[in-house]
Amino acid sequence: MTDPDWSSALARSAGDVLPELVTIRRALHRDPEVGLHLPRTQRVVLDAIDGLGLEVSVGVGSSSVTAVLRGELRGPTVLLRADMDGLPLAEETGLDFASENGAMHACGHDLHTAALIGAARILAAERARIRGDIVFMFQPGEEGYDGAAVMIGEGVLEASGSTPIAAYAAHVIPGPAGTFSTRRGTLMAGTADLSVTMLGVGGHGSQPHTAVDPVVAIAELVTALQVMVTRRFSVFDPVVVTVTQLSAGSAVNVIPDAASLGATVRTLSRDADERLRREVARLAEGIAAAHGCSVTVEFAADYPVLVNDDTEADWVSGILAETFGEKRSVQQADPLMASEDFSRVLEAVPGALILLGSSPADLDAADTEWNHSPRVRFDDAVLADLAAALATLAVRRLGHAVD
Question: Residue 282: inside a domain, yes or no?
Answer without folding.
Answer: yes
